[in-house]
Amino acid sequence: MNYYLLVYAIYLLVSVLLTVWVARTLFTNGRTFLVDIFHGNEPLADSVNKLLLTGFYLVNIGYATLSLRTTDEIHSYQQAMETLSIKLGTIILTLGAMHFFNLYVFYKLRTRAKAEARTLDFVLDK
Predict the structure, then answer these.
(1) Distance between CA 83 and CA 21 in Å, rounded?
(2) Beta carbons within 10 angstroms of residue 119's beta carbon
(3) What predicted TM-score, i.e. pTM, was given to this entire model?
(4) pLDDT of the chain along its 126 residues, tens only?
(5) Quick one: the chain helix, strand, coil %, rounded to 5?
(6) What is the DSSP letter of 76?
(7) How many of the other CB atoms lie within 10 Å of CB of 19?
(8) What is the pLDDT of residue 50?
(9) 68 in helix, strand or coil?
(10) Torsion of CA 17, 21, 26, 29, to 10 degrees
(11) Residues in Cβ contact with 60 at an 8 Å cutoff, skipping those fewer than 6 apart
(12) Plot region of 30 (φ>0 → left; ψ -120 to 50 → alpha; else → beta)
């Protein structure tokens, strides 16, 4: 049996499914932050959210594809599982890092939008 093909098939399937799951979660829950950041401008928030989703897919699926190749010797199911766990662990950590990066960007954008709103309120009150 060709263990390499087994590892590649499982790796690609799980990587793409995980990427889609994380991306959909960010897309659904990130909309609220974007609407707030853009002061209720829902069309703009939805547009930016779709662009972020597309970029997230491109970066993560591209990285998963680039890291598909392995030089490890795979001659048994045990070696296949060990190689697969390293590859999937790397993808999961990458997705986690991208998730926290997106949250950080949302936080910074929201903080800046709130500060701008406070400044505008202050100027209008005078």
Answers:
(1) 23
(2) 10
(3) 0.75
(4) 688 888 999 999 999 999 999 899 989 998 988 898 888 999 999 999 999 899 989 998 999 999 888 888 899 999 999 999 999 999 999 889 988 888 888 888 888 888 887 777 666 666
(5) 85, 0, 15
(6) S
(7) 21
(8) 94
(9) coil
(10) 160
(11) 15, 19, 22, 23, 91, 94, 95, 98
(12) alpha
Q: Single out the residue of 109, 107, 91, 108 nearest to residue 22, CA to CA.
A: 91
Asked if 83 contacts 72 with a C-beta cutoff of 8 angstroms, the reply is yes
Q: At 29, list the tokens.
A: 């829950």
| pLDDT at residue number 33 | 84
Report the C-alpha gap between 86 and 64 in whole angstroms: 12
Which two three-digit tokens encode residue 10? 């499982």
Tell me the CB-side half-sphere exposure of residue 76, using CA atoms within 13 A. 3
Q: Which residues contact 24 (CB under 8 A, 6 or more apart)?
A: none
How many residues in total does the chain contain?
A: 126
